[in-house]
Specification:
The chain has helices at residues 35-43, 61-71, 86-98, 119-131, 174-182, 196-206, 208-213, 218-224, 230-235, 256-262, 320-329; strands at residues 2-6, 52-57, 76-80, 105-110, 114-115, 136-141, 152-159, 162-169, 186-195, 241-246, 250-251, 271-273, 276-279, 285-287, 292-295, 300-305, 308-313, 340-343, 346-353, 357-364, 372-374, 378-386, 389-393, 396-400, 405-408, 414-417, 424-432, 441-444. The protein is an alpha+beta fold. The strands form seven sheets. The chain has a six-stranded antiparallel sheet with strand order 18-19-20-27-22-25, with no helix packed on it. Strands 6-9-7-8-10 form a five-stranded mixed β-barrel. Strand 23 (389-393) and strand 24 form a beta hairpin. Helix 3 (86-98) packs across helix 6 (196-206). The chain is globular and about 75 Å long.
């Protein structure tokens, strides 16, 4: 069985933990593994690494590659030039798989869900694989509460291993959700299993503009295809939809309320990651890298990061995306970036910033290097604090060791490389009339960025 993992994301719903450049699926929210890495481990229950394809966007492709490398699990990565929702993403992956295997059965998984798989999980996928010859199969989570934040599926006629889909229904109000629970409806989990050829047949029938677009090369395909979900584009229209129930602990971790629900909690009901002291405080979610102390507060989410602090009732945490929207409207880059920013060569952290200067800590992964580049408006002073740097500066190459430094004037081509086996750490002091990240001209880049 092939597996297609969708790994896009806007990074708005768990701000300030997640940002556009580092959405929730890449964050170790529960333990050392990110949600993305957990999804890959689930895929490995029934697919080999070379049978797993990741569809992500160009912004996150290096995060995907680095997290796969941590797992020692080489998978194929497909990069979308722009996000057009789930149907184009799935069609992109399916058309790629069809070039190699016209009889493929493909499991479609989201990378941002938390699932604790058991024996029934693998059994459900094997049952769906049998149904996939004649049906487009979706998975329905058996509800444990009348949740108003999920869409539902109404099962119809019994099939071998599942049910025909009678209807997909939108997110209900509480009273309707309670009736759905009594009537045996299932949560729509956004997971599927398709015959690749049957999927394309139904795509041509119900979303021909999408199917036609993906007869073009990648760039043209994403320019031409409409922005549309697989549910709206195909699943709600086809007469070949089936559902296999899935009775496992599941969460889309779509809010801090949902994160609190899946997090371990103490006797006081507090879910804590970090150092915390609480007096007469209970049922709070506390996430911070520094000490948080509370007195007499209950049912709050307190989410602390180096550049932003969120405090809200847990019951209102689904509105966190509104904060990201406000920041975006203001042109505030904090909706996009953390103070620590991941790059394909490593990371940088902003330590201090003023109108005409910026101080960063740069970490370069062993064996990697930044692009050969120049800046028009700023100079840079590099001080090596750990490891050995190979520096290209104005046509000259030389090593810089701990405690040593070098100066890069504005307008000069330069490059920083880590030739060693340990991470290279450099303190960079930028000075100039403009220190924005877009003041960069690349001449040569190992990662083929523009």
């Amino acid at each position: 069985m092939k597996t297609l993992i969708l790994a896009g994301g806007s990074g708005t719903r768990l701000f300030p933990l997640s940002r556009a450049c580092y959405p929730k699926q890449f964050i170790p929210l529960i333990d050392a593994d990110s949600l993305f890495q957990k999804s890959v481990k689930r895929a490995l229950l029934f697919s080999e690494p070379d049978e797993i394809t990741i569809v992500t966007n160009k912004l996150h492709r290096f995060l995907v590659a680095d997290q796969l490398e941590e797992m020692h699990t080489p998978c194929r990565i497909l990069s979308e030039p722009q996000g057009k929702n789930t149907l184009p993403a799935i069609t992109y992956g399916i058309t790629s798989i069809l070039k190699e295997d016209t009889d493929a059965r493909v499991a479609i998984m989201s990378s941002d869900q938390l699932i604790n798989p058991d024996d029934s999980y693998k059994a459900a996928f094997l049952a769906a694989e049998k149904l996939a010859e004649k049906y487009l199969v979706t998975f329905g989570i058996t509800p444990d509460s009348p949740h108003t934040g999920y869409g539902y599926i109404r099962p119809g006629a019994c099939l071998d291993g599942g049910f025909a889909v009678d209807a997909f229904v939108e997110k209900p109000d509480l009273q309707t959700a309670e009736s759905y629970l009594r009537d045996g409806y299932l949560w729509n989990a956004g997971m599927f299993l398709f015959s690749a050829s049957l999927f394309m047949t139904e795509c041509k029938k119900h979303a021909p503009e999408v199917a036609e677009a993906f007869t073009l090369p990648k760039e043209g395909a994403f320019e031409q295809t409409p922005k549309i979900s697989v549910d709206y584009g195909i699943m709600e229209k086809t007469d070949k939809a089936a559902v296999v129930p899935l009775s496992v602990p599941w969460s889309d971790v779509g809010s801090f309320g949902a994160l609190y629900a899946v997090h371990s909690r103490g006797e006081d009901g507090n879910a804590v990651r970090g150092e915390y002291l609480g007096i007469e405080s209970h049922d709070n979610l506390i996430i911070s890298d520094r000490l948080v102390a509370t007195i007499g507060i209950n049912d709050l989410a307190i989410i602390d990061s180096p550049d932003a602090l969120l405090v809200c009732p847990r019951s209102e945490s689904q509105r966190v995306g509104e904060i990201s929207d406000l920041l975006r409207k203001r042109g505030d880059e904090r909706c996009e970036l953390h103070t620590t920013v991941h790059r394909p060569w490593g990371t940088y952290s902003v330590l201090q910033r003023g109108d005409t200067f910026q101080i960063k800590r740069i970490t370069v992964t062993p064996g990697r290097r930044i692009s050969l580049q120049l800046h028009h408006h700023r100079s840079e002073h590099w001080v090596v604090v750990k490891g050995t740097a190979l520096v290209a500066n104005n046509g000259n190459e030389f090593f810089v060791r701990p405690g040593e430094s070098t100066f890069v004037p504005a307008g000069v081509r330069h490059r920083l490389e880590n030739p060693g086996l340990l991470p290279l750490e450099v303190i960079e002091v930028q000075n100039g009339e403009y220190v924005g990240e877009d003041d960069i001209v690349r001449f040569d880049d190992d990662f083929e960025r523009e």
